User: Which sequence fits this backbone?
């Protein structure tokens, strides 16, 4: 039987190359025409400490992690000890027995063990211990039926920069791994027999790369940020590409400087953004209020991680929803978008820049570690769908005295000049101001100005990314979620459908202004509504209650251990409710 | 055709909130004069200020003015310059704004050396919150928050800037308008990060560092014909002397600006061509095959 769905985990010590190896194997799967999702579970340190990299490949799109791991490539005993329970019965382990030996305690008898002296072979047969990981690729490929030619070509591609010698030794390392399987494990078991098909017009991209690319395509030409896991990739991406397009990326001294720089550049007319995670987001809060009251368009990418405080910097969580929506002293209009896939990370980032300029307010793009640092395959991005809409930006001269930067308008959006525009001189003040920008505490003006600023959100409503409906639209069981949970939720729906339970899932892509009408309609005739999210307090579920009132048939499905959901965890929780189960016909 | 503007062309209609006699009036009028003398035009001037009595100054200078949050004028001003290098960018704020809550940014602006001018209006107290001790208040200064006397030693902003690689350091006195105009003009003309610290007495709350006190306790480095403003060691010496407070251009140096080191393109970033369908953008996608 050909099972075109496999999850491989590489486990070892941080810094020993399992991430590079994982990336490589993800590329091979992609070129075999499979859909790929990767998940990095690494410690917040550079050398040492257990790390693992999960690669899922198969025929369905928009994966999350599977319920179980099919194959574990363990570079040391610790990797086995930590992960042996995650293996599917019938799965396998490739174990480097050069220095560690398997203990009875870990040796499950419902999985197949392939002990290979990887490090020893690397050192003695190939003369370079570093190629241990590459040998493991050959072993893995031979066992699960990966395309040997594609693998060797990819290995050659990755090491091309390091010269012919390095390429040669790595290609020989793949072959050594393949040969070892032939010699020691007899006929290739072909347990998975992965079937290659044409790669097609597809990409493989990390969530953070899609955000960086989306920003650049959308015309972002200024970024300031402060290194913080898991958002740093975005700053690195822009530092590489922005200058090639007449832009600039700055590593600031802290997040306070970063966000104020972004505001300064946006004030001057540049599409600008920052990317940060929880702790940095907290520091940026005051200035984001400033951008709100100054009606300056900025894009803030939040790559959420487990908090509070330092929390677990390399782990995933959806605990910053409240922060993005409610943080700050005083009240400002803001928009919060949340992509659920790498592909949507691109399109929603593009949308964020247009929304920011059209409605002159801060726009957040909320991602999470399990999405922003995960790689996935996706269809080629459609640049023809991208239109840059700069809203009411005014570049032609205006008449000083007549022009009012904060003019009261019906749609709440005022024409916006930038420095250098003749006649547009004004004061942009974080203090309350009148339509001309002059600071005032006049009561009438304050009310009008608050009304004007918030009117923008009403105007923006038809422009906001809409929720997506997955599953059976007629189903009585409703699920609501967002972000990285899209993959696991959709997969849990398939599993439940196989058990005869029909479900529909509303994937929210705009979290603020809250899609009140859509959510109200969705839950109106649902027998049960399950809100799936990665936090302790049920922030999204509370938000729904805040909008629609208490609802007895609404349930929380929560996970807050820093790891993304497995589909079975969601379906198990939903199926717990007795009346969710289908009637058994006797 | 260029028309020579006057200080009045840089005035706004907004009435000032400062107390009568405040040193900040002198800073504002010197700034307006300097802008006019340098042939600047309001549309090409971006003026960023912080929070405090001094921070109000941006509302009184006809320009593209920005009055942001407390302590963050320099990051905003740095980014304005990066966004449009053709603008004349000036940041202003008080001793609390620059040397307390914004001290981190001060240090990093100095080391980046963007081509902007920073005017620190130093009144050695927190005026707008009614007279608490500030980072430049003398030790022992008795205030509501330091009833037993200010326990902190005062910060020497220019000395810190010199240590951090500052390229133009000047100090003026708001009661000496002509000289102050000249210092600001030199600072704005300087290619790189220029600091003009202006001693700007608070007549309401600071009863120690008064106009009379400054007249008594300051001198101009140019009084000594042999003073060499390009000599770093000499600058350190006068800045850290226990004698009188030095005024004038204390140090000047030349090194690459932040704009140059970030390889800004010829066209200001704010005027970059935004074409989502540029072939170069599609090429990037190919690297993700």
Assistant:
């Amino acid at each position: 039987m050909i099972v075109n769905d496999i999850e491989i985990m590489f486990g070892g010590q941080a810094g020993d190359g399992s991430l590079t190896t994982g990336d490589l194997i993800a590329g091979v799967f992609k070129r075999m025409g499979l859909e790929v999702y990767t998940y990095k579970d690494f410690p917040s340190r550079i050398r040492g400490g257990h790390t693992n990299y999960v690669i899922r490949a198969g025929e369905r799109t928009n994966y999350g992690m599977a319920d179980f791991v099919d194959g574990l490539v363990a570079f040391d005993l610790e990797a086995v000890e930590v992960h042996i329970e995650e293996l599917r019965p019938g799965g396998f382990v490739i174990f480097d027995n050069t220095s560690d030996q398997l203990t009875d305690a870990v040796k499950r008898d419902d999985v197949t063990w392939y002990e290979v002296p990887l490090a020893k072979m690397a050192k003695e047969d190939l003369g370079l211990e570093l190629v241990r990981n590459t040998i493991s690729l050959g072993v893995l490929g031979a066992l699960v039926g990966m395309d040997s030619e594609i693998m060797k070509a990819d290995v050659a591609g990755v090491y091309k920069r390091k010269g012919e010698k390095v390429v040669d030794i790595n290609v020989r390392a793949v072959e050594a791994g393949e040969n070892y399987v032939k010699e020691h494990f007899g006929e290739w078991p072909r347990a998975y027999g992965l079937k290659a098909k044409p790669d097609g017009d597809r990409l493989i991209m990390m969530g953070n790369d899609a955000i960086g690319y989306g920003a650049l395509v959308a015309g972002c030409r200024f970024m300031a940020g402060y290194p913080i896991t898991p958002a740093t990739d975005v700053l690195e991406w822009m530092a590489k590409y922005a200058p090639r397009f007449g832009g600039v990326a700055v590593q600031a001294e802290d997040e306070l400087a970063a966000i104020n720089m972004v505001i300064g550049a946006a004030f001057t007319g540049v599409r600008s953004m920052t990317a940060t995670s929880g702790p940095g987001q907290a520091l940026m809060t005051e200035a984001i209020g400033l951008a709100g009251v100054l009606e300056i368009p900025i894009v803030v990418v939040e790559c959420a991680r487990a908090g509070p405080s330092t929390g677990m910097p390399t782990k995933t969580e959806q605990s910053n929803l409240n922060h993005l929506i409610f943080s700050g002293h005083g009240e400002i209009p803001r928009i919060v978008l949340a992509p659920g896939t790498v592909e949507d990370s691109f399109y929603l980032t593009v949308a964020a820049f247009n929304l920011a300029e059209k409605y002159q307010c801060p726009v957040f793009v909320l991602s999470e570690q399990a999405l922003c640092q995960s790689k996935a395959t996706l269809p080629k991005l459609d640049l023809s769908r991208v239109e840059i809409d700069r809203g009411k930006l005014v570049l032609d001269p205006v008449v000083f005295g007549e022009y009012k930067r904060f003019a009261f308008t019906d749609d709440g959006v005022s024409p916006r000049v930038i420095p250098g525009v003749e006649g547009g001189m004004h004061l942009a003040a974080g203090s309350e101001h009148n339509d001309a920008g002059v600071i005032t505490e006049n009561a009438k003006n304050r009310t009008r100005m608050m009304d004007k600023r918030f009117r923008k959100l009403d105007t923006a409503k038809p422009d906001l990314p809409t929720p997506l409906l997955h599953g059976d639209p007629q189903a009585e069981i409703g699920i609501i979620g967002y972000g990285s949970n899209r993959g696991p939720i959709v997969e849990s729906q398939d599993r439940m459908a196989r058990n005869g339970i029909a479900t529909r899932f509303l994937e929210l892509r705009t979290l603020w202004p809250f899609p009140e009408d859509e959510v109200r309609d969705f839950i109106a005739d649902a027998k049960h509504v399950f809100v799936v999210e990665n936090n302790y307090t049920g922030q999204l579920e509370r938000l729904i209650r805040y909008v629609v009132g208490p609802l007895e048939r609404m349930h929380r499905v929560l996970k807050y251990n820093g790891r993304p959901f497995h589909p079975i965890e969601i379906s198990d929780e939903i199926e717990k409710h007795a009346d969710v189960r289908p009637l058994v016909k006797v | 055709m260029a028309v020579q503007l006057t200080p009045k062309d840089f005035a706004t209609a907004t009435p000032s909130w400062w107390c009568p006699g405040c040193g900040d009036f002198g800073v504002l009028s010197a700034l307006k004069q300097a802008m006019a003398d340098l042939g600047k035009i309001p549309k090409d001037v971006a003026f960023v200020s912080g929070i405090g009595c001094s921070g109000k100054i941006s509302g009184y200078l006809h320009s593209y003015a920005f009055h942001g949050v407390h302590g963050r004028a320099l990051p905003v001003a740095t980014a304005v310059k990066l966004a449009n290098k053709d603008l004349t960018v000036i940041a202003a704020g008080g001793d609390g704004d620059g040397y307390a809550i914004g001290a981190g940014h001060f240090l990093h602006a100095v080391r980046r050396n963007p081509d902007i001018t920073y005017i620190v209006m130093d009144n050695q107290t927190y005026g707008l919150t009614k007279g608490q001790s500030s980072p430049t208040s003398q030790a022992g200064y008795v205030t509501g928050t330091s009833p037993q006397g200010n326990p902190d030693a005062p910060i020497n902003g220019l000395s810190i800037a010199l240590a951090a690689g500052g390229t133009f350091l000047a100090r003026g006195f708001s009661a000496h308008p002509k000289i102050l105009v000249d210092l600001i003009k030199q600072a704005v003309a300087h290619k790189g990060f220029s600091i003009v610290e202006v001693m700007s007495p608070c007549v309401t709350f600071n009863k120690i560092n008064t106009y009379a006190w400054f007249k008594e306790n300051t001198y101009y480095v140019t009084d000594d014909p042999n003073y060499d403003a390009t000599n770093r060691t000499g600058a350190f010496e006068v800045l850290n002397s226990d004698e009188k407070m030095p005024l004038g251009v204390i140090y000047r140096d030349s090194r690459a600006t932040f704009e140059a080191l970030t390889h800004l393109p010829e066209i200001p970033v704010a005027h970059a061509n935004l074409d989502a369908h540029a072939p170069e953008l599609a090429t990037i996608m190919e690297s993700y095959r």
Q: What stands out?
A: Chain A has four domains: 5-199, 204-385, 392-465, 468-580.
